[in-house]
Amino acid sequence: MKRKFRITIDGNEYIAEVEELSETDESTTDQATKNADNNTKKEDKDTAHAADVL
To answer: Which secondary structure element, helix H or strand E, spans residue 52, and what is its range?
Structure first.
């Protein structure tokens, strides 16, 4: 089901469309969280390595 909203910010009008999704697949959400965590760890490791090089 899609819903539209009309929003006015500083005199500019925007239309936002939101689609409501059915049930969330928790395994997909969990995997996305793990991927984000792994990416953050890799970025931290890369940053630490860059600091060592400098």
So the answer is: helix 26-53
